[in-house]
Amino acid sequence: MTTTTAAPAKQRSVRSALGSLLSGNGALVGLLVLCLALYIATPAFLTGPNLVNIGIQASTIAVLAFGMTFVIVAGGIDLSVGSVAALSAMASAWIFTSAGLPGWMSIVAGLATGALAGAVSGLGVAFGRLPSFIATLAMLSVARGLTLVLSDGRPIATSDEVSFLGSRLGGVPVPILVLLVTGVIASFVLNRTVVGREMYAVGGNVEAARLSGIRVRKVLVTVFALAGVYAALAGMLLAGRLNSAQPQAASGYELDAIAAVVIGGASLAGGVGKVSGTLIGALVLAVIRNGLNLLNVSSFWQQVVIGLVIAIAVGIDVLRRKNTRH
């Protein structure tokens, strides 16, 4: 009798442990399964050069998504990061070619442009009480329009300092190094600073955060400004790889950034998310694109697949929130 009762209890314990493992590391498990499936489908997938290529491809989206993590953790959404990335890279190139300032100043100008664009969105959300969806949708249009105005619709050459971001250092691609450094910084901000804890508090419950003495408006402006800085760096990474700032660069990248954050376990309701999960989410998207390219799948179908992945990720987030409430 005791043995019979103990067996189902042990099975429940195993299932519970497995469920906890998958819920906490579902994105990582999915990434490993995806890599195994692609290796079986095409052995060229797990070669050294191809893995480096995946890292380079993931770098821009990952850096963009690190900034998006701040926003989503704080309970917002930023639809403008792709356009802000393009504007920042264009401002950097314009400062160098038209204003004749030193190359290092072009990087400073790009980062400042991103921070300013993000802060404007944050001010609209914090003080104008605009939904983040609306405020950043407006910035998406404004930033893309300013990019076209600055460039007159034509690519502009970047400085050597920006081009360095697309090169190699000691044989290691600089975009991968930037990805690692920015990821460590973002993780430190979220987990080891007061403003990081305030982001989680604001995303979890705005009113409770306000009553506890947190300056919610300041946090919101800071969050969007940080997202703008990360978008600027992502834009310059892309420009460095292309050796020019393109007026239509990073179009649609905001969707990939949101998808990477959600795939990594963050909640669109706010208050939940981590940088390591976002990195895994960005790698999942890069692996899918790379694998489909190796399998000679049409780019049109690739868009369909990525769209389905985004839909599934958001669906999982909705189910996760329902289960949490119950």
From TrEMBL:
The keyword Coiled coil is assigned to this record: no
CDD domains: TM_PBP1_transp_AraH_like
TM region(s), chain numbering: 21-42, 54-72, 79-97, 103-126, 133-151, 171-190, 219-239, 300-319
Membrane topology term: Multi-pass membrane protein
Pfam families: BPD_transp_2
Keyword set, alphabetical order: Cell membrane, Membrane, Transmembrane, Transmembrane helix
Subcellular location: Cell membrane
Entry annotated with the keyword Transmembrane helix: yes
Main location as per UniProt: membrane
Identification of the protein by name: ABC transporter permease
Lineage: Bacteria, Bacillati, Actinomycetota, Actinomycetes, Micrococcales
